Each structure stands twice: as structure tokens, then as C-alpha cells.
Predict the structure of Chromosome segregation protein SMC.
Amino acid sequence: MENQSGQNQNSRKNSNVIYFLIVVVIALLGTDVYLYYQKRGSDEKIVYQNDEKTRLQTELDSLEAQIQQVNSSKTKLSAEMQAKNDSLQSKIKYLRVQLAKGKLTAADLRKAQEDIKQLRYFVTKYTADIEELKKQNATLTTERDTLKTNLATVSTKATELAKQNEDLNTKVQVGSALKTSSLNIGTFKVKGNGKESDNDKAKNVKKLKINFTVANNAIATQGLHDVYVRIIDPAGNLITGTDEGTFTADSQELQYTYKTSIEFKNDDSPYTIDWVNANPFIKGTYTVILYADGFTMGKTSFNLR
């Protein structure tokens, strides 16, 4: 009985040892499993953080590209828009620096996510503002071009009207200028006692009588008009007198032989201009031209033997 009792006690001791070993093994296995899952969770967390950093960096690249695209149009920015652009560029640079740091905690990532979310909002708003500015500039450009076209049209019309007005003024001036309806030259010998007699010999003629009438002209100014006389000798030379001078007629500056005035009444009145040559006449044909109001008034010729 004692042997059997001792065997039972040994058997219980061996069973206890086995149970203890089983418990130890189970504990060790549980610890390994716990550590495995802990490590796995940590690795997954690191992988998640790295993936999130990459995603956020990619988003920053996209936002920066968006800003560069809207700026590529070379739209002239206001001071306020330029300040916004500079601020966004600085924010992107700052976030890149933050993401480039070593390991980021979950809190760091959350803050970066929130910052980029706000940045996305501001970039979207900035892009919309630039597009609106482009539209406004396009509208202003169209309005400017339309205004330039209108101004060019107005300028052209003004030039045309000025030319028409100038042409009209010229026509009025031409139309209102005095014209002779008859013109003839009388040649006279003047005796010592002052008596005059008709003569056509060059050596005897001393005085010319220029007789003319002025054609009726309703638009010509009634009153005194200057009349310029040019007498051309047979050699084609202008005969000048003591009161020689210049005047403008038919768009030319001319020298005259004699100058006088007549009073125009638009009544067919006859006029006579007496002119005495200070030098002897020569044989040949002479030309007499009258001018008034800037235009040729009349022209005739006479011959001396």
C-alpha cells in the first residue's frame, strides 16, 4: 500500500509539472502572438504614414502646378492678387519642408492634411479670381479695340469732313473771286503838256489804260478788293514798277508790276487802271494779267510796233 501511495504521489507531481510546462508554453505563445501583432500594427502604421506623406506631397505638386498654369497667361496681377500668389507659394514651400521631415506622428499628419485642405480651398479661389480677371481683361481689351475702331472711324470721318470742308471753302473762294467779263488794253502817247493820244509804236507809247468790267457775282463780297497787275514784256520778263512787291495767287507767290484797289458793287461798273512805264517800251507782244482775291482775274495781250 505504501508503494502504491508513493507511486500515486509521483504521478501527481509529474502531472503538475506537465501542466506547468503547458501553461508556460501557452504564455510564451501568447506573448509571441501579442508581439507579432504589435509589430505588425506598428509596421502598418509606418507604411500608412509614408503613403499619406507621399499622397500629400503629390497633392502639393498638383496645387503648385495649378498655380503655375493660371500664372502662365501672363495676366497682369493687381497688388492684392500678387500678394495672394506669394502667400500660396510660401505656404506650399512650408508644407513641403514639414512633410520632408523624418517620421511624422499621426497628429503631424492630421495637421498637414488640414493645412493642405485649407490650401486647396485658397488655390481654388485664387484660380477662380484669376479666371475672372482674365475675363475682365478680355472684356476691357474688346472694349478698347472697339473704342479704337470707333475712334479711327470718327477720325476718318472727321478727316473726310475736313477735306470736304476744305474743298467747299476752296470752291467758295474760287466762286467768290472777282472775274473780268471784258478786258482790253489802250496804249497812249503822252505829250509834254499831259495830253494823251492813241499810239501803238513802242518808241512813242508811255502809258497803258487797262479797261475791264467785272462779271456779276452774287457771292462775292461787295466793297474794296485789291487788284494786282502783272505786265510781261515780249522777252518774257516781268516789268516792275517803283511800288513792286509780292502777293499770293493760284497757290503761288508772285511779284507784281502794279497794285491798286477797286470797289465792287456787282453792278457791271467799268473800271480803268492807268499805268505809266518808267522805262521805254520795246517792240513786240505784251501780256497783261490781273489778279484779285487770290486767283487770276483776267488775262489779255497787246502788240506794239
In short: Residues 158 and 164 are 10 Å apart (CA to CA). The two ends are 199 Å apart (CA to CA).
